[in-house]
Structure formats: structure tokens, C-alpha cells
Write a structure and sequence with these properties.
By secondary structure, the protein is of the alpha/beta class. It has two domains: 4-73, Chemotaxis Receptor Methyltransferase Cher, domain 1, CATH 1.10.155; 83-273, Rossmann fold (3-Layer(aba) Sandwich). It has ten helices and ten strands. The protein has helices at residues 9-23, 32-46, 51-60, 62-73, 83-97, 114-125, 141-149, 157-166, 188-191, 224-236, and strands at 103-108, 132-138, 151-153, 177-180, 183-186, 194-198, 210-215, 238-246, 261-265, 270-273. A hairpin with a 2-residue loop joins strand 4 and strand 5. The protein is globular, with a radius of gyration of 19 Å.
């Protein structure tokens, strides 16, 4: 990989301005060091050796920008990631959600949709999927297209099955998908009540009211100011007494909204809005 010193802070500012002006995506409040590493990794993968060449490609080649955005915003995801979190949902949260006539859940920053599929399986096993609506949103349209297809590389299924069992799953995990060559295609019935759509946490607004909002391992990519802004948006998206779940290495402690929540599960970072 290229040395970090080969892109200055001024050049990063210039890059952020170019992307905002030409394409409407605003990375200005992303954590600077993480953003810089991702830019350098993209340059390395594309064989681009200078900042001038990067600017040229981004300005003149929409296809390159689409690829750049895909690689810049890709988030690590997996089914039943952090099984303890899903076990907490099974035992603590879902029985309470069952009291609502319609259950609305938002996965913000859903990447390629594995965590949304995991939630659908939890709801199916609780007999609640029919009256649930799951919304998976992401900044990246390529991620969303993959998510809509419900196709997961078969090479991950052994790990996902282990996660599922550790989360308290009782069924044979393979009943939820069909193996086709080197991919697993998840059942249409499981995906029927899922809507995947583009939403930018930086610039877009509240679009519904939810009983549960999951925004896991997304805040770590933002600076303190943007974390505050996004947490306010997530809070405003919750129904009174709704639940917010963030990543197990994230926290509400330094945000403006912390007083609006009671802690439901301190280890799994699940909070309940007070009113």
C-alpha cells in the first residue's frame, strides 16, 4: 500500500469537496484517519500512483467513481454477527416487540444485507415475520443490489451456521436457503417483508417510525460531531419506548441523546428510548 504521507490533509479536503460537488456524497465528517486509509487502499487496488490521477479519474469516469464508492464504503458484515447480541434480541427484545400489531425495524448502514436476513430469521422463528416490516438502508447502491438478491457466498455458510447456533437458533440453518453452485440463495418467503433502499445518514432525514433501529458498527467511521448528528436522527426515528442497537464497541456516552435512553443490555449495546 502507498504510504499515508503521500496524501496530505489538504488533498483529502480537496477530494471530499470534489466528491460532494460532483456526486452529492458528503464525507466531510467521516473519521479522517479511517477515510484516508480507505482512499489509499482504493488507489492501491486501482494502481493509481498520484493524487492528480485519482482526481482525474473521479472527475471524468462515472464507472470508476461507482467502483470507488463501493470500495470506500464497504462495511464488514456477516449473518448473526456477535451471536450474543442476537441471543439478547431473542430473549429480551422480540417478546416485547410481539405486543405491537405491526413491527417496524430499520437496519441503518446495512451493507449487503446479512444482518437484515438474520433479523428476518429471528422474527420467523418467533412467529412474527408476517406482521413485520424490515427496512435495510445503505449509502452504497451496489451493496443494496446484492442485498435484494438474497445471495450469499457459500464459503461463509459454515461460519454463519455456527453464529446462528450460538445465537440460540433451534432449526437446521440450511432450511433457510438453497445451495446453488458456490452461493446460497435465501428463501423468498424470508425476504418478502424486507425493503432495501438508499439512505444517506449524513444528509437524509427520518423516513418512518420504528420499534427497533439497528445501526451497528457504523458510528465508528464518523467523527464526534457526525456521531451526534446521526444519533439524533436514529433517536427521532424511534417510537416512544423503542429500542436502539449499536455496535458492541460503540457507545452513546458522549452523545447528546444519552439522557433519552435507558440501558437494556450494556454488553450488547441495546438501549430503550424513555418516551
Amino acid at each position: 500500500m502507498m504510504n499515508l504521507t503521500q496524501i496530505t490533509n489538504g488533498e483529502i479536503d480537496e477530494l471530499i469537496s470534489l466528491i460532494r460537488h460532483n456526486y452529492g456524497y458528503d464525507f466531510g465528517d467521516y473519521a479522517r484517519a479511517s477515510f484516508q486509509r480507505r482512499v489509499l487502499r482504493c488507489m492501491d487496488q486501482a494502481g493509481i500512483r498520484s493524487f492528480f490521477d485519482l482526481k482525474y479519474e473521479l472527475t471524468n469516469d462515472q464507472t470508476f467513481f461507482n467502483w470507488f464508492l463501493q470500495n470506500l464504503t464497504v462495511n464488514v458484515t456477516e449473518m448473526f454477527r456477535d451471536p450474543m447480541f442476537y441471543k439478547s434480541l431473542r430473549t429480551t427484545i422480540i417478546p416485547i416487540l410481539a405486543s405491537y400489531p405491526t413491527i417496524k425495524i430499520w437496519h441503518a448502514g446495512c451493507a449487503t444485507g446479512e444482518e437484515v436476513l438474520s433479523m428476518a430469521i429471528l422474527l420467523q422463528e418467533a412467529g412474527l415475520l408476517e406482521r413485520s416490516r424490515l427496512y435495510g438502508t445503505d449509502l452504497n447502491p451496489a451493496n443494496l443490489e446484492r442485498a435484494r438478491q438474497g445471495i450469499v457466498p457459500m464459503q461463509y455458510m459454515k461460519d454463519y451456521t455456527y453464529n446462528y447456533i450460538q445465537s440460540g437458533g433451534k432449526n437446521d440453518f440450511s432450511t433457510y436457503y438453497t445451495a446453488r453452485y458456490d452461493h446460497a440463495i435465501f428463501n423468498k418467503e424470508l425476504r418478502r417483508n424486507i425493503v432495501f433502499s438508499q439512505h444517506n445518514l449524513v444528509t437524509d432525514q427520518v423516513f418512518n417510525e420504528f420499534q427497533l433501529v439497528c445501526c451497528r458498527n457504523v458510528l465508528i467511521y464518523f467523527n464526534r460531531q457526525l456521531q451526534n448528528q446521526v444519533c439524533r436522527l436514529l433517536t427521532d426515528s424511534l417510537a416512544p419506548l423503542g429500542y436502539l442497537a449499536i455496535g458492541m464497541k460503540e457507545s452513546l456516552i458522549f452523545t447528546d441523546v444519552r439522557q433519552q435512553f435507558d440501558v437494556t443490555d450494556s454488553v450488547c449495546r441495546i438501549y430503550r428510548r424513555k418516551t
